[in-house]
Amino acid sequence: MATADADQWRRRVARRPGDCCAIALPPLAAENKHYSPGLSNHALSIPGLGSLKHVCQDQAQVSIPKLCVDSFAQPQYTPYMTVCDGMRLCSSYKTTYKTAYRQVYKMETSTRTSYICCPGWTQRHKRAKGCLQPVCSKPCVHGRCIRPDTCECRKGWTGDVCDTDENECDADAHGCEQECVNSKGSFICTCRAGYRLNIDGKTCKATGEVTDAKYEALMLRVEELEQSMKRMTKMVADRPNDGVLPTLPPQIDRIGSLSEQISILEERLDDSYAAVAMNAAKFGFCN
């Protein structure tokens, strides 16, 4: 059969209904995902599973190889004898074609549907129905994740991931009567010298104890007034006696008042020292 006849046969065979595809397997088609809206207050109804929150459909276009039967033109070679130049016998062959069939694979495209957690949500455990666990891309340091990328901070902390200490002493809501001291994630109330913190942890009560600083300041003030009194007394003594009684300066009354306060302070100090001595005699001093 001539070459033109063979080509025509191949074209005719290729148009036969049995011809389905090529032999070479093409690569799988890339997946094309389509997510349904995963709204926080909406649920997806899935046959056999019911209504599940934060679940989205994952639809992917996939190519699946399918076995089929393909027809093709198969050549047949038949030998025969012929007369050549010089009246010689020569052997030759002729080519004929017949329709043959073979198994090949063709690629079929289909849509595969699966169900996954919507972005920002995950399952609480592998067997959980629905996706009820929110996901935060950064961990909530001093808090918990309540919505996708949303942290709820514990008291005393602030910031997007609850890593910033909140200074409660800057606000008036701390409730400390005297002094507020900020700490990591909290605060404490303290009292000034001469006061102690009540059981409520916020208000202060006077202790009645005399601190060394107050005693020294009071003694220094008395000494200054005594020096001033000596100078004034000397000035009065140096004045000529004209029969008029001198007028005492007002500092005399202040000196008397301070002297009384010193006496009271000394009594309190004596009582404190006596109490310490009794405790030492009863329990012993600490090393």
Automatic annotation (TrEMBL):
The keyword Disulfide bond applies. Transmembrane segments: none annotated. Residues 52-133 form the EMI domain. One of its GO terms (molecular function) is calcium ion binding. Keywords: Disulfide bond, EGF-like domain, Repeat, Signal. This is EMI domain-containing protein.
